[in-house]
Amino acid sequence: MKKVLVTILMGLIFVSCGTSSLKNPREDQKFYKLFDGVVLDQNELIAMIKEYSKNAESVVNKQAVDLAENFIEENNYSELLFKNSQSSKHYSDFEESFFKFIDLPVARKLNLLRLKEFDAVEFTKYIDNFSKTEDAAKRLDLIEKIVQNDFPSFYQGDFSSKLILMISEYDSSKKKLTAYRSIKSNFKLVTLQLNLYLFQAVPVETLTEIVKVQKNSEYKKGRAFIEEVQLKTNEEYLEMLSKRLEENGIEKVDFAAILENRSI
């Protein structure tokens, strides 16, 4: 499962603009900067599903997997996110105020310093030996804050957990809830570990500057707008996928009922 989670989370961090079908390249580039870590690439979503299918054959619904892959190929998440953000009356204010933060010299410096390639073996080795890293405690504290500030409600973990559950077969609500909780919890852990790995070359002083920027009230307002649009897009996209699955005889997953039943 960890390999599956790493696959999708690498998509969140190294999202490829080249696979998006958004119409305006210049606007597209700025949009991806504004929504860095939120945009989901179609290829990465499909890669996640394929990886999950290989590693969880006993619970995978193969028909649902095929339908989900076709749906993702036909429906670009990025376009829906783009449409939802730009349809908001607050978008122009958000773009103007938030871009000045992500385009600060310290942000550009951070992008230059962070790793551009991912090696699974090196990742595991680095995490296993992280406690021996210079300033490990301080680095962990700062990166925990950075992750928390940029993913306060962690909607992407919720989105991916629900997507995986929609293509799985469990014979009880209890098993569905257990699987959902486990996947979402692991997403949080792997997200932190990936950021520790990706920012390993970034000096503690630079990480400290980033945390200071994130404390700005305007920055927080911008993140709130991003989360609002992200949640709306996630809900719409999963509902569209759910309808596609239902039309082909796949039972709908009632997440509200599963998550509200505290007695399970």
Q: How do you describe this structure in short?
A:
This protein has 264 residues and is mostly helical. 72% of the residues lie in helices and 0% in strands.
Number of strands: 0
Poorly predicted regions: 15-25
Mean pLDDT: 87
The biggest sheet, with number of strands, parallel, antiparallel or mixed sense and barrel status, is:
none
Shape assignment: globular
The run of helices and strands is HHHHHHHHHHHHHH
Number of helices: 14
**What structural class do you assign from the helix and strand content?**
mainly alpha
Keywords:
single chain, 264 residues, mainly alpha
Helix-strand blueprint:
Elements (H helix, E strand, L loop, with lengths): L1 H12 L11 H10 L7 H14 L6 H13 L2 H10 L4 H12 L2 H9 L6 H9 L7 H15 L4 H12 L6 H26 L5 H11 L2 H31 L7 H6 L4
Helix pairs in contact: 1-3, 1-11, 3-4, 5-13, 6-13, 7-12, 9-11, 9-12, 10-11, 10-13
